[in-house]
Structures are given as C-alpha cells and as structure tokens.
Amino acid sequence: MRAQRQISMPSDAPLPRNAPAAHPRHNPALMPGVVIVGAQWGDEGKGKITDLLAERAEVIVRFQGGNNAGHTIVREGKEFKFHLIPSGILHSEKACVIGNGVVLDPAVLLGEIDGLKRRNIDVGNLRISANAHLIMPYHVLLDTAGETKLGKLSIGTTRRGIGPCYADKALRLGIRVQDLLDEKILRTKIRAALEPKQQALRELSVQRRKLRKEAGEEAKAPAEGTAVVPDPRLDLHSMVEEHVNFGHRLEPHIADTAKLCWDALDADKTVIFEGAQATLLDLDHGTYPFVTSSNPIAGAATVGAGVGPTDITEVWGIAKAYATRVGAGPFPTELDDEVGEQLVERGHEFGTTTGRRRRCGWMDLVALRYAVRLNRMDSLAITKLDVLSGIGPLKVAVRYRSKEGAVLESFPYHQSILHSATPEYEELPGFDADIEECREEADLPQAARDYLGFISDFVKVPIRLVGVGPDRDQVVWIGS
Ligand code: IMP
Fold it and tell me: Which ligand 1 atom is the nearest neighbour of the CA of 162?
C-alpha cells in the first residue's frame, strides 16, 4: 500500500509570497511569450503585424482555427497569402509551428507548402503538432450541408469544415495528425468517424428534398455535399489511401511542438502565439452563435500551444482603423451608405479565404474596450489608417443605446440586446493627406494623430504600431 503523504502546513499559515520558484522564471526584462490577437471580427491585418514582430522572435506558433483564416503579407511588392501556415514562414531561420489547437486540412496545407516551394521559400522550419486535428472531407461536406439546412439562419461560415472538425474533437471522434503515420489506426478511426457522418448527410439530404417538394420545387440536382447517392469523397478506402500519402509528405514536419515552445521559452527566447479570426468571433465570448468554433482570445494560446498562463508575458491586439465583418451576426456600427461603400472599395474589403465582400462600419470603441479587457491587451496595433484619408468627419462609437432607450457603456452580454443596440458616436475631424509614405508619428496629420489618441485614451492601451499601407514597411512605430 502506498504511504499517505502528510501535509504539515496549518490551514491558516500565510502563503510563502517570495519563496524562490522551483524553476527559474524568465528574465523579466525580456518578453518571451507574446500573443497576437484580433480585436474585432477578423481580417485586422494580424499577418502583417506577426511578420513584423517575428523579427524579434525565435518561434511563431498558430494556436487555433484552421484554413478559415486568411493572412496576407506584402513584401517588396510581392503578395503572400496563407490560410494555415503561420505568418512567420517568411523568416527561414525561425521555427514556424502549427499548434495542437489548430484544425488542419492536410490537402490545403500541402498546397500551401507546394506554393511556397515554387516561390523558393524554404519550409524546412515548419513544425506541425502531432496532436492537431485533421479536417476530413466529411467535415467540409457537413459544414456546407449544415449551412444550407439553416437557410436564412445560417452563420455564413467559410464552409471549410471548421465547426464539424472541432465538434468531432470534442466528441473524441477526431483524427489527429499523428494518426496519419499509422495506417491501421487511421483506418479504424476514420471508419468510426465516418459512419455517423454518412448517416447525418443522408438525413440532411432527405430533409432538403422534402422541403423542396413541399415548396413545389421540382427535384433539382442535389446541392454539393447533400447527394443521396454515395459520395465518392466519402469512400473509406480512398480516404485512407489519400491520407496515408499525406502522412508520408507531412512526416518530416510532425513534432512535439509544445516541447519546442517550452525549450524556447525556458531559454528566454521570444515565442509569438499568432491568433487567427478574432475576439468577437470567439466561441465563448463572441457574438454567439455567429462565431467560429474555436477560441481566438489570448488565454487560448496556452491550451492551443501547450504552454502555461505565466508563459504569456505580453498581449498585442490588432484592430483596423474602422470595423469589418464577414458572414452573418450583429455589427452595431455597420454602414449601409456611401461611406460603407467607400471603405469596401478603398480598403479592398473582400475576404482572403472566400472572396466575400466584407461588411464595413465605423470603429466601435465599446467592442474594442471589451476586447482589450478580455485579452488583457498591453499594446494595440491599428491597421489600415490610410483607408480613412479623405473620409471625414470620422465617427467612433462610444456607447450603445438599447431599444428601450437605456445607455449601454459596456458590450452587452445578452444576444438580443446587442442585436437591437444602436451606437452613439463621437465625431472627430478627418484628414485628407495621403499618409502611405509616413514612417514617423510626427509625419502623420494632426487629425490622424488625434484620432489614434482618442482610441488609445478611450480603451486605455497604448497604440504602438500603425499601418499606413499594405506593404510590411508601411508602418509607423509609436514610442520605443
Ligand atoms: P467558420 O470559422 O468557417 O465556421 O465561420 C464562422 C464565422 O466566422 C463566419 O461568420 C465567418 O465569416 C467567420 N470567420 C471565420 N474565419 C474568419 C477570418 O479569418 N476572418 C473573418 N471572419 C472569419
């Protein structure tokens, strides 16, 4: 029998406050664990900021989401678009990690790897967590079928299979990257996961046909992902064969990525945790159900990369100088007028992943303050300030009003209140000058500086970086 351990500390003994830690802590002068998160509804330009901050880092890790994301980096006029590969890949000397919290479509990943190789970018530094989950063909079909079934209530997902993949992960029916390396296990797991999907897809298809019939529509060709006939994409044997091949190709990149992060952090090297999507799309804290199926907030970096909360020493939030949203869901400051149109045109507001037109609106400081607190941000980067030049006066939402007339100073936690809330604005002078060539804070027009100052004062976080154009050099650093 095992001996019982005696706990001798009396219950009222003070906790030893300054006792030396069992392991030496990081050098506090360094900031080894830096999380970068989106502060709005995504597409804030996190890729560019990650690419810039990556200069000071040793490891760049993506910790959630999948190829629903789209990161664009422009370097010396050349455009790079990534969906899965962390934005740090352009730094060949740094480890670039797909963490365990990511859901990964292997065909998409291999396509990105091939695309980079064709452009002579070295991908030897890419590491993939063996514990990351795979987006399987049935996840993509289910995403489309589910959205089609929801009709007017649909979320407007990217239809990349993100939700169904995370659902399988929670159901413990997921296929992980490590499973690609063992054909027997892979076959067993795919078989177990596939059967309920075939059933669900069949039922969804029958329901759709019934609804069409009731609506008096003639049976058209079944929509993609809803066919009653066995779909060749759902064939077990070809799926296993294809995925074994994916495994062969990905094997050199598969690693224990949590340990890779620990080793870097313990050696006081900087690790950047790169978020995808954004705070207001967070599964728990966003505008549910119009959210993604992962947690894009800073706290999730610990789970999605496998590090401890105290490994995170700095949090950067990235926000556009205005607001955008793709897909359905509440968006209090949305503009349906000419200004909204101007923002779409001037900001090229079309999704990197789906090409969808983004909804545009004024900067929402109620939502930004919420994101600042939720992520406990230390610094803000404001991107695309150049898009606002010539649009003036500028408005920023400083509070909401409920439909009953109540003043709402903070972001409402109740969905129905948010849906019907109207923003109240502060109006600030606009600026007309082209700011794309500005590189110092002093180069910016006074009205642009005042606009940034207002945002920073309102949310009580310093703005340390401002984007003034698409190229990675088109930034203004503020302060040291
Ligand atoms: P899903 O992540 O594909 O399931 O989509 C859920 C919601 O998140 C939809 O409204 C999408 O438009 C939105 N979404 C997902 N990824 C991104 C992104 O990278 N940027 C902006 N919106 C996104």
Answer: 4
Is 71 tagged catalytic? Answer: yes
Domain 31-130+256-477 has CATH 3.40.440.10: yes
* Residue 253 bears catalytic tag: no
Other Cβ atoms less than 10 A from the Cβ of 171: the count is 10
Q: Is the CB of 282 under 6 A from ligand 1?
A: no
Residue with CA nearest ligand 1 atom 8: 292
CA-to-CA distance for 203 and 190, rounded, in angstroms? 20
pLDDT band (50, 70, 90) for residue 18: very low
pLDDT (tens digit, 9 = 90+) per residue, 302-327? 999 999 999 999 999 999 999 999 99
- Ranges of each domain in the chain: 31-130+256-477, 134-251
pTM for the model stands at: 0.90
In the CATH hierarchy, which top-level class contains the domain 134-251?
mainly alpha
**Burial state string for 443-468 with b = 16 or more CB within 10 A and e = fewer than 16:** ebbebbbebbebbbebbebebbbbbb
142 lines ligand 1 (CB under 6 A): no
